[in-house]
């Protein structure tokens, strides 16, 4: 690691603060939602929730004890309430979005500055930027990684996980964070993968679908069997149940603090918190009940298949100045498009992994998403590694070498 490398990251808007470079140890970056001893946690806000950390957040402490060294804190939108990260540009196309809310962490890895970074994932905030920036990102099973010292936004959905170059790198970090090393199959051969095509239908960029179908072909060639799966509750209700939960819980945590100090926020998060105050307790309880039904539906699917395979997002990185994308001949808000396929695991609490599956004809990365049974992160990373070994993903890795992580 060298100072000029950090200058590159700063061009992409990845860092808000740099720490001394380590002489030994494995460097990693930390989303500005996790405490690092002796540093100020800012949560992406002008002042709301700022505090000087006297000790590391538990995930940071566990990595430090394993020989990792935090070298930078990465940019986050205010209270992580966005699928975009202000100031972060995509290393593959600087005029395009890097995603959010862990956009700074994804950029730090994709730009080759650190081999791994910590992010948080509530509605997709690890998987979205990782997919857009052509790296891997793991949302662990809800509740498996301790959250002490991590800024809370939506406790029933919040998770901490790694962003890294590959699925294997993600698993290595995750096992440290969770303190477990769950077993996984030795081979992909014979595994049954659900293909829930109804979740995206025609509302997907054809180039994205082509790349993810190539990932499916790679898994078939490795001996996996793909079968159609229907998740009607998840299809109809995951986004609404998740969004209602996010609005309500974040407002419960942060609205009063904002009212006490309105200078603490200045952007989109204000409107989200205000909207959360208008969600009734009955509507919140109904959303949580629906989430439990969706979780049961996904659990039931895993009695028939070993994991689910789907796109991470139905689009590639959007131009930074657009808020609407066209899919299936109709306009869709960028916010909804980015969140649409990550919502399922966020609401159900199951682990989900995105891996770089290949490039579009325009040279933009596409992520393939794997969702698995609870505490089966190793299974997902085995499958993710198989996708990464396929020709389209290898082409992406070759294009990444030398200017992004290798």
Structure, described:
It holds the Pfam family Amidase. InterPro entries: Amidase, Amidase_CS, Amidase_dom, AS_sf. With 406 residues, the protein is of the alpha+beta class. It has 13 helices and 17 strands. It has helices at residues 3-12, 58-65, 103-110, 127-133, 167-178, 206-221, 232-260, 268-277, 281-301, 334-339, 343-348, 377-388, 391-400, and strands at residues 15-18, 26-31, 40-41, 51-52, 68-74, 89-90, 93-97, 116-120, 136-139, 160-164, 192-195, 225-228, 307-311, 324-327, 330-333, 352-359, 365-371. The strands form four sheets. Strands 1-5-2-8-10-9-16-17-13-11-12 form an eleven-stranded mixed beta sheet, sandwiched between helices. The protein is globular, with a radius of gyration of 19 Å. The two termini are 14 Å apart. The relative contact order is 0.15. The model is unreliable at 1-8 (pLDDT under 50).
Largest sheet: 11 strands, mixed
How many whole angstroms does the radius of gyration measure? 19 Å
DSSP E strands, number:
17
Q: What ranges have pLDDT less than 50 throughout 5 or more consecutive residues?
A: 1-8
Percent of residues in beta strands: 15-25%
Question: What is the topology?
Answer:
Blueprint: H1 3-12, E1 15-18, E2 26-31, E3 40-41, E4 51-52, H2 58-65, E5 68-74, E6 89-90, E7 93-97, H3 103-110, E8 116-120, H4 127-133, E9 136-139, E10 160-164, H5 167-178, E11 192-195, H6 206-221, E12 225-228, H7 232-260, H8 268-277, H9 281-301, E13 307-311, E14 324-327, E15 330-333, H10 334-339, H11 343-348, E16 352-359, E17 365-371, H12 377-388, H13 391-400
Parallel strand pairs: 2-5, 2-8, 11-12, 11-13
Antiparallel strand pairs: 1-5, 3-4, 6-7, 8-10, 9-10, 9-16, 13-17, 14-15, 16-17
Helix pairs in contact: 2-5, 3-4, 5-12, 6-12, 7-8, 7-9
